Amino acid sequence: MLDNPENIYKPSAEFIQNAHVGPDKYKEMYTVSVEDPETFWGEHGKRLDWIEPYTKVKNTCFDFGKVSIKWFEDGVLNVAANCVDRHLATRGDQTAIIFEPDDPNAEAQHITYKELHEKVCRMANVLLSQGVMRGDRVVIYLPMIPEAAYAMLACARIGAVHSIVFAGFSPDALANRINDCGAKLVITADTAPRGGRVTALKSNTDAALLHCSDKVRCLVVKHTGDQTTWIDGRDVDVKALMETAAPDCPPRPMGAEDPLFILYTSGSTGKPKGVVHTSGGYLVYAAMTQEYTFDYHDGDVFWCSADVGWVTGHSYIVYGPLANGATTLMFEGVPTYPDAGRFWAVCEKHKVNQFYTAPTAIRALMGQGPEWVEKYDLSSLKLLGTVGEPINPEAWNWYNELVGKGKLPIVDTWWQTETGGHMITPIPGAVPAKPGSATLPFFGVKPVILDAEKGTEIEGNPAEGVLAIADSWPGQMRTVWGDHERFEATYFQQYKGYYFSGDGCRRDEDGYFWITGRVDDVINVSGHRMGTAEVESALVAHADVAEAAVVGFPHDIKGQGIYCYVTLMNGIEPTDELKKDLEKWVRTEIGPIAKPDHIQWAPGLPKTRSGKIMRRILRKIAENDYGALGDTSTLADPSVVDDLIENRMNK
Ligand code: 6R9
């Protein structure tokens, strides 16, 4: 049904004519990229400025026990110089960053490459003056303000490794990340307005730092000017220091494989892991995908509405666009403030050419009615994109018809924190779209469908199984911070010889890939990736909770919601008040994005005789799908299931 020709959307002749890559060129480039990666990437690596050119291109091994990934390994470069300095001669006065504040009446800022250079240098000098050295880690806990980009690039300039913690995370989550990566310093802001509400970032940071070494210093961006506590000797006013810092700071030559950043992401087990990306390969890949996937042309205004706290913001607000000398838009607010027209008002105001957002945002806006889109002149738009989760046909159609007026290519980009950049995505001038499919691989990417049990490749089409990648690409993560064994165990152990994505996937008759969602215990709530284990450990940390099991369930707007089964300690009464208390508890332990949608009291959980919780059953109950519970005979006590169903029905 979904493969019928009427559901295939081809780019317009005009689009194809202006596109970097048309249909024939895609096939040609793709073939070279996978058959001869050395030549292909050797050539495309030259898009960056290298202080010492590389002579080796690819040196990678996917064998379990020996996994090692190196690209351009003997090359020397500086990422910040590539994103800023090298554009000064040709486009110093061009806008690098457009900053659109939360408050629609506040003035937008246009930061030129020259200004960006000065800010980054000043910030880099501030970091140096605080004792930050090459290889030191700096945690960034900032809202979507230009200082976040300055801070990232300032770290890159002096060879420090940044780790951004999303500003929606709690003090506990922040403390865990500061401690895990051993950060010397955290950069935060006083408070952060978002959607008219204010988050107290500095006081969250104060709370986090109570659990960290007292050597960790705190740089504060006075963004709103709101009053905060101040600890002399530990807290530093960044803006004040930037004013007196020197406006120039030489970029430090770095090895291609020196770490650029760590970004924590959720897995199916244990604590979030620090995904490590390095300098050369990551930047080549982020820049290349930004140009080709979005068909970015010089002078275009590019807007990725993600947050810099996620990988999408790293690659497509900051590194990719700036490496290409683009104008990138940074938006502090939310899609629904002051009203549901904000995205489109911003597109009109700044004449945005490519717009990239998440299906969950589209679904939230769909419900508000077409008038919010129709009010605005969207004629500057040339292309639309989505990321973060599979897009459902209704949302795709709405995006296509209302925003794209039926004329714009839509690129549905499948990728992950671990992959650094797009992996499966249409090249818009070459690959027709099918709503809901991420279509075909990006250059250099070899996706395969594996039989989940046997681990063998399923050849031919159609095929269905789990999605793995057969060979390395430059943007691939290199390790888990401080735990290479965990890196291998997570991605290379289950299916030997492949990078395992954790996603299920089918491939249709035309070879198009359709991501079917995670096959592990990771859930995707409004495009935010979360391990059910994290929510469970937050719940069991509460004194009244004996045991908890958390699963995802389908949610109209968020994609997936959080469903918690909670067993209370003996003698504790299950009350509505306690439910609210637990919701609040999880919010405080992890952050607002992890707030449970449903808590169901569970006198017992379905367990195998060996004590394993059978989540498959819990998922079905959460989905209200009791007909398909499957085999329950291995349960230690099958009657638990009946209790759970009965409770669910009585809800
Ligand atoms: C970039 C980003 C990764 C997980 C991934 C998959 C889901 C992302 C998708 C998609 C279907 C798409 N995902 N893009 N599923 N279609 N276009 O989102 O990174 O936060 O690490 O999440 O998101 O399940 O495995 P991250």
Instruction: Estimate the global geometry from the Cα principal axes.
Output: globular
Spatial ordering of strands, largest sheet: 12-11-8-6-7-14-15-23
- Poorly predicted tracts of residues: none
Distinct compounds present:
ligand 6R9
Rg, nearest Å: 24 Å
Structural class: alpha/beta
What percent of residues are in strands? 15-25%
Query: The biggest beta sheet, please?
Result: 8 strands, mixed
In words, what does this structure look like?
The protein has 651 residues and is α/β, with parallel strands linked by helices. Helix content is 31%, strand content 22%. The chain contains 21 helices and 30 strands. An 8-stranded mixed β-sheet has the order 12-11-8-6-7-14-15-23, sandwiched between helices. The protein has a 7-stranded mixed β-sheet with strand order 5-4-17-16-18-19-20, with helices on both faces. A hairpin with a 5-residue loop joins strand 24 and strand 25. Helix 2 packs across helix 3, helix 6 crosses helix 10 and helix 8 crosses helix 9. The chain starts with 12 loop residues before the first helix and ends with a helix. The structure holds ligand 6R9. The site of ligand 6R9 has 22 residues, from helix 12, strand 20, strand 24 and strand 25. Ligand 6R9 binds next to helix 12, strand 20, strand 24 and strand 25. This is Acetyl-coenzyme A synthetase. Belongs to the ATP-dependent AMP-binding enzyme family. GO terms for molecular function: acetate-CoA ligase activity.
